[in-house]
Amino acid sequence: MTQAQAAPVAKSVQSAAAGVDFDLSFMRNSASVDLSRYATRNLIAAGNYVPDIFVNGMSVGSADVRFTAEADTPDAQACFDRALLVQVGVDVALLGLEKDGASTMCLRLDQLIPDAKATFDFAALRLDLSIPQASLLRHARDYVNPELWSQGVPMAMLDYYFDAYSNSRTGGTQLYGGLEGGFNLQGWRFRHQGSLALSQNGQSQYQNIATYVQRDIPTWSAQLVLGETYTSGDLFDSTSFRGVRLYSDDRMLPNSLRGYAPVIRGVANSNARVSITQNGVKLRELSVAPGAFEINDLYPTGYGGDLQVTITEADGAVRTFSVPYSAVPMALREGQSRYSVTAGTVRNLLNTKPFFSQATWQYGVNSMVTGYAGLTVAEGYRSGILGAVLNTSWGAFGLDATQAVTQIPNDQTYTGQSYRASYAKLFDQTGTNLSIATYRYSTNGYFGLNDAMAARDRTQQPGNWAMDPLYRQRSRASITLGQRTGDNGGNLYLTGSTVNYWDRPSSDLNFTVGYSNTYRNLSYSLSASRQRDAFGHSDTLFYASISIPLGEKSSSMLSANMSRDSSGRARMQSNLSGSLGEDRNIFYGLNVDYNRDSSGGAAQTNGGVNASYRAAYADLSASVSAGDDYQQFSVGARGAVVAHPGGVTLSRPLSETFAIVHAKDAEGAKINNAPGVRIDSRGYAVVPYLTPYSMNEVSIDPKGLTTDVELKQTSQRIAPRAGAVPLLVFETESGRSMVMRALQEDQKPVPFGAVVIDSTGKEVGQVGQAGKVLARGLDDEGKLWARWEKGGVETVCSLSYKLPEKAPAGDPLFLQVTELPCIASDDPVAEPIATDRASDLPRS
Question: Does 222 or 32 have the greater pLDDT score?
Answer without folding.
Answer: 222
